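mind reviewing this stuff:

——
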Amino acid sequence: TNHPVFASHDLDQTRDFLENLNAINKLELIGCDAPMNAVIHAASFSDLNLIYASFGDARVQLHTPESDTNSLFLVIATDGGATVHHHGQDFEMSQNKAMFRDMQVPLSATEEQFSALGVDLPVNLLKQQAHALIGDAALMLDLKFQPSIDLKTPGGRHIRNTLHYIAHALDGPLRHLDNTIILDNLRDMLLLNVLMQLPNSLSDYLRQQ
């Protein structure tokens, strides 16, 4: 709540802002039951950017094109739900189902009364963290995650709790703290937990550590 960067009831303003912020190139209201009520908060820690976004009670449809950015955007819903098409798969998002958005692959979604926490995870930072754990195997293999994340599993719950912990810390005790060591430790904690708790193409190697 202490890091507002955007708030608007105007659809065109929201489109322009999201295109610059997160490469969303299409945003449409579906039906007239609820108006647009967009709210965006953002905070940075170390090399990562944490975002909270809400469209209020509106039902919206959005699309993102492919991007040159080699990163994974972890999205955890805090309210509402969505249906998503990404990486050739159709899946649901809810407070029990999160998502990895591969920024290099197009995505389309329909969201209703939806709000979420998201964090951009550059693949090179994830691979650096993996290299510290398993050595050169991390550099020889592509790092891949499944787009849909089950938050009912122990690993999924832990990732949700970790992201909420970081968000509350940045919103509270760390709000005005410019301490590189603490912020770097938060980043490394998140990267390590994502690698160890969520199934990925390096899991077999990581489990041997």
